[in-house]
Specification:
- The protein has 379 residues and is of the alpha+beta class.
- It folds into 2 domains: 280 residues, no CATH class; 91 residues, no CATH class.
- The protein is 20% helix and 39% strand.
- The strands form 5 sheets. Strands 15, 16, 17, 18, 19, 20, 21, 22 and 23 form a 9-stranded antiparallel sheet that branches.
- The protein is globular, with a radius of gyration of 20 Å.
- It starts with a strand and ends with a strand.
């Protein structure tokens, strides 16, 4: 297995003197770049020309990750040529949230084979309901198949995202690559690092990703009470206070949901994933050091360290909300992951509108406000 990572910056061009000659039917090319196509159309065309036989997938971002550096208006790339692992691509349209479950099912059915070991999925972050997408994937794929990935980003604008489909950046698509055979090893880890505070409340009225009431009270009104003076900055300031959800008081598994928008007319809040009626919800708040520690814990969960002799690719997908909270300290969480991973690990990734990974084991979940890592190596 051979790995090469490089970056394209409009002002200076490619960081590599030449794109590495690794094209093959067993080559994966990952590309994460600016939502504004003016910055990335030319380098994406370079990749299509250089790797005609390879499996090219990618998406737009809310910030590109290259090693320990966080960049904007660039394109970060990883090229991985496997020796004994086979690959397959799949994609499906999802022009509205109602298409999301079917898109997940379609991709899963296309990729499913007895020797399928894992799936890396990238989705439009604006038109797709991530919870329903994950539901469609889980309805078809067996639990031992590791599914990770994320929802494309568009900075803090939340207007338009793109996913590579047939080598072209297009909106309204979900794209994925499947990994096959006994030699590929996929590690995964997803952690937040937020502190829970306040009263745990019951979700008494919701529909999909829209939260109307907590304990019978309007959700937006409650949020405004907690935010105080910061309520004037909604919905952006709500990124500082995501929700932790669990099914009931006995459930130790908490899924984080981040706010995308508010609806003043209905006193409701719109989240980046579904908010099931009857679940328990509790506010969370940022602790800078714990957010960075959470990134390191995600790296530990991949169980990749200790394999120093093997090349490793780390795909880091972190939530745009974490970037907005951490600000100039965002690169600290990127440094924290590489301090835990093997010294020779290559890392690229992006800031997203949602992260896809198993909570610990089993089927995948949609996460918000986490650092989610996928490590890929061959044995």
């Amino acid at each position: 297995m051979k790995i090469s990572t490089f970056i394209y910056v409009p002002e200076t061009g490619w960081s590599a003197d030449a794109l590495p000659a690794l094209d093959s039917e067993q080559t994966l090319v990952l590309a994460f770049g600016a939502a504004d196509l003016r910055h990335v159309e030319a380098p994406l065309a370079d990749l299509v020309q250089a790797y005609p036989r390879s499996h090219l997938i990618g998406c737009s971002t809310a910030g590109e990750i290259y090693g320990t550096a966080l960049t904007d208006e660039s394109l970060v790339v990883a090229v991985v040529r496997f020796e004994r692992t086979h690959l397959a691509r799949a994609s499906a349209p999802a022009n509205t949230p109602d298409d999301s479950f079917t898109a997940g099912e379609t991709i899963a059915r296309t990729l499913l084979r007895p020797d399928l070991r894992g799936v890396l999925v990238l989705s439009d972050g604006h038109t797709v309901n991530g919870t329903q997408l994950v539901g469609g994937l889980n309805a078809v794929l067996p639990e031992p198949v590791i599914v990770t990935g994320g929802l494309a980003g568009d900075g803090a604008r939340f207007e338009r995202t793109w996913v590579l489909h047939d080598g072209k950046p297009q909106s309204g698509y979900v794209s994925a690559v499947g990994f096959y055979g006994p030699h590929v090893r996929l590690g995964h880890g997803s952690k937040g690092g937020w502190d829970i505070f306040g009263i745990e409340r019951r979700v008494t009225r919701s529909k999909d990703n829209i939260l109307y009431e907590l304990d019978g009270r309007p959700a937006l009104q409650l949020y405004k009470e907690y935010l105080g003076e910061r309520a004037d900055g909604l919905p952006a300031t709500a990124l500082l206070f995501p929700l932790a959800l669990r099914a009931d008081a006995a459930d130790t598994k908490r899924i984080v949901r981040t706010v995308l928008d508010i609806d003043e007319a209905s006193n409701a809040m719109i989240f980046a994933g579904d908010i099931p009626e009857g679940s328990l919800a509790q506010l969370m708040q940022a602790n800078f050091d714990r957010l960075v520690d959470g990134a390191a814990e995600a790296a530990l969960m991949t169980h990749t360290n200790g394999h120093a002799e093997r090349p490793v690719l780390s795909v880091a997908i972190s939530c745009v909300g974490r970037r907005l909270v951490l600000g100039e300290r965002s690169e600290e969480e990127l440094e924290a992951t590489l301090e835990v991973l093997p010294a020779h690990a290559h890392q690229i990734g992006f800031y997203s509108y949602g992260e896809i990974s198993p909570y610990a084991t089993g089927h995948c979940d949609l996460h918000n406000q986490t650092m989610t890592l996928t490590t890929i190596r061959e044995v």
